[in-house]
């Protein structure tokens, strides 16, 4: 038994979750650190193992059922003949490094107790792309290729953006917190002991912005506030409520995990409102805690020094995680001397959680072929491959091979 699996017990045979192909063999267990995991091997295995890092982060205690939800969503991997292994992660919330370690551990459990794969792919979805990127750099010999879908690979600037939203929202709406409630630094997300719930926050956002109302039914003040947020932060109306939720509860978890707030807006000059001078004079300002920012960089961020082919896919109109984050990935890999190992693809979609069953087969095929031959695919070739496969299922949108993302700073105010 390998050192990474420690004294982990062998996985046990388990009933496959609903929705999986016929004949799939499933195994469950907990690793030496207590993380639940699920392994699935199709009846006619290609020899390729996909190790999945799930999105989120899921706040609170990890639940074993998370693995079932994920494998049902990503059953396309099994239908393509590939085995699947995924950890639920031993720690809830924004614990990237430990999640990366758990991801490596489930790979070794597969090797120790199931079989040695012909090829091993690392797949990161959404926040799980941060986990995958960290795992790729911590354990470079473990993976032969990496697929990042809807990946949150923009680094800290994406979380600075959520502070921008909190600061502007509070300037305009002044109800999160309300004037008669304890005041706290917005850069902390929410105090640990604050009882505010997600439902209560949603009610406040609707009260101030009317986001759940048809545009014609919003009051003039609601419409003005919402328009200001949309114009200054370049975010669509239907993305505001979710981003505020993450800027509250997920940011609180980020601060707790890193011992301080790694985000700040002290130097930002906001633009796009009816009165930018008043806006910039009125928004609350915060400086990032340098120790927390460095800890975020060490524990949760990536450099871009990847030793294997990296293939990405992202919806161009994704409002959860902007497609412009991929310019950050490209720049980091270029600076690390690894840009030749990167191929980026985009689809005409606003989806984030799952881009569709017909999107992933051509990506998986192209990535394995790249590993086998050493010849990198092109976005145009992947688009052609997708059309040739002529999948009968509905996709969220076609590949757009000519799309090139702008710099993230074009979408998010730089600091």
Structure, explained:
- Helix content is 38%, strand content 12%.
- A 9-stranded mixed sheet has the order 1-2-3-5-4-6-7-8-9, with helices on both faces.
- The chain is globular.
- It has helices at residues 65-73, 76-79, 96-113, 128-138, 157-173, 198-209, 220-233, 240-258, 276-282, 290-300, 325-335, 360-373, 379-389, and strands at residues 12-14, 25-30, 36-41, 48-53, 83-87, 119-125, 145-149, 310-315, 342-347.
- The chain contains 13 helices and 9 strands.
- It folds into 2 domains: 12-154 and 303-410, Rossmann fold; 157-297, no CATH class.
- With 415 residues, it is of the alpha/beta class.
- α4 (128-138) links the parallel β6 and β7 (145-149).
- The longest helix is centred in the middle third of the chain and has 19 residues, at 240-258.
List keywords for this structure.
nine-stranded mixed beta sheet; disordered N terminus; Rossmann fold; alpha/beta; 415 residues
Topology:
Layout: E1 12-14, E2 25-30, E3 36-41, E4 48-53, H1 65-73, H2 76-79, E5 83-87, H3 96-113, E6 119-125, H4 128-138, E7 145-149, H5 157-173, H6 198-209, H7 220-233, H8 240-258, H9 276-282, H10 290-300, E8 310-315, H11 325-335, E9 342-347, H12 360-373, H13 379-389
Helix pairs in contact: 3-4, 5-8, 6-8, 12-13
When the domains are counted, the total is 2
Please give the largest β-sheet: 9 strands, mixed
Question: What structural class results from the helix and strand content?
Answer: alpha/beta
Query: Can you give the mean pLDDT?
Result: 94
| CATH hierarchy: architecture of the largest domain | 3-Layer(aba) Sandwich
The total of helices stands at 13
User: If you consult CATH, what is the topology of the largest domain?
Assistant: Rossmann fold
* Rg, alpha carbons: 22 Å
Query: Order of strands across the biggest sheet?
Result: 1-2-3-5-4-6-7-8-9
Please state the overall shape, judged from the principal axes of the Cα atoms.
Answer: globular
Distance between the termini: 48 Å
Task: Give the fraction of residues assigned to helices.
Answer: 25-40%
Question: From N to C, what is the helix and strand string?
Answer: EEEEHHEHEHEHHHHHHEHEHH
What CATH first level of the largest domain would be assigned?
Alpha Beta
The overall strand count is 9
Are there runs of 5+ residues with pLDDT below 50, and where? 1-5, 392-396
CATH superfamily of the largest domain: Alpha/Beta hydrolase fold, catalytic domain
Taken as a percent bin, the fraction of beta residues is: 5-15%
């Amino acid at each position: 038994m390998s050192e990474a699996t420690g004294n982990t017990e062998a996985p046990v045979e388990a009933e496959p979750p609903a929705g999986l192909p016929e004949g799939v063999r499933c195994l469950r267990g907990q690793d030496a650190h207590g993380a639940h995991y699920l392994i699935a091997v199709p009846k006619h295995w290609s020899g390729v193992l996909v190790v999945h890092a799930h999105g989120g982060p899921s706040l609170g205690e990890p639940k074993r059922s998370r693995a079932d939800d994920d494998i049902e969503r990503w059953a396309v991997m099994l239908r393509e003949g590939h085995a699947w292994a995924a950890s639920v992660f031993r720690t809830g919330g924004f614990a990237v490094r430990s999640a990366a370690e758990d991801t490596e551990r489930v790979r070794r459990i597969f090797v120790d107790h199931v079989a040695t794969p012909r090829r091993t792919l690392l797949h990161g979805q959404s926040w799980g792309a941060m986990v995958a990127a960290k795992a790729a750099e911590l354990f470079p010999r473990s993976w032969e290729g990496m697929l990042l879908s809807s990946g949150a690979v923009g680094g800290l600037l994406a979380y600075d953006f959520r502070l921008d939203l909190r600061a502007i929202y509070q300037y305009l709406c002044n109800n999160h917190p309300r004037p008669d409630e304890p005041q706290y630094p917005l850069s902390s997300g929410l105090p640990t002991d604050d009882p505010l719930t997600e439902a209560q926050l949603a009610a406040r956002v609707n009260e101030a912005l009317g986001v759940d109302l048809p545009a014609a039914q919003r009051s003039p003040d609601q419409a003005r506030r919402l328009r200001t947020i949309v114009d200054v932060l370049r975010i669509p109306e239907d993305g505001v409520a979710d981003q505020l939720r993450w800027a509250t509860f997920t940011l609180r978890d980020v601060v707790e995990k890193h011992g301080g707030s790694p985000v700040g807006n002290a130097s930002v000059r906001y633009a796009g409102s009816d009165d930018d001078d008043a806006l910039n004079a009125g928004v609350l300002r915060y400086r990032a805690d340098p120790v927390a920012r460095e800890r975020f960089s060490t524990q949760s961020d990536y450099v871009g020094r990847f030793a294997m082919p990296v293939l990405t896919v992202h919806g161009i109109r994704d409002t959860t995680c902007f497609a412009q984050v991929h310019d950050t990935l490209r720049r980091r890999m270029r600076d690390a001397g690894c840009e030749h190992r990167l191929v980026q693809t985009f689809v005409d979609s606003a989806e984030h959680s799952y881009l569709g069953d017909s999107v992933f087969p051509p990506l998986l095929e192209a990535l394995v072929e790249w590993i086998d031959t050493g010849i990198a695919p092109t976005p145009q070739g992947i688009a052609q491959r997708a059309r040739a496969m002529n999948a009968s299922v509905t996709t969220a949108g076609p590949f757009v091979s000519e799309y090139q993302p702008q710099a993230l700073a074009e979408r998010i105010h730089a600091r």
